[in-house]
Inverse folding.
């Protein structure tokens, strides 16, 4: 039971922290989808 609870807590921590960490390194969905090659017609 302890292993399951620690896994659930780690999933929550990673889910919450991932967007902040990725933005620090320059990875974001906005950067990936808003280039000059994207057609917006």
């Amino acid at each position: 039971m302890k292993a399951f609870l620690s896994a659930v807590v780690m999933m929550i921590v990673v889910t919450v922290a991932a967007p902040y960490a990725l933005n620090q390194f320059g990875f974001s969905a906005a950067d990936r989808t808003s280039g000059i090659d994207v057609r917006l017609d």
The CA atoms of residues 22 and 31 lie 11 Å apart. The chain has a mean pLDDT of 81. Residues 2-25 form the longest helix (24 residues). The radius of gyration is 16 Å.
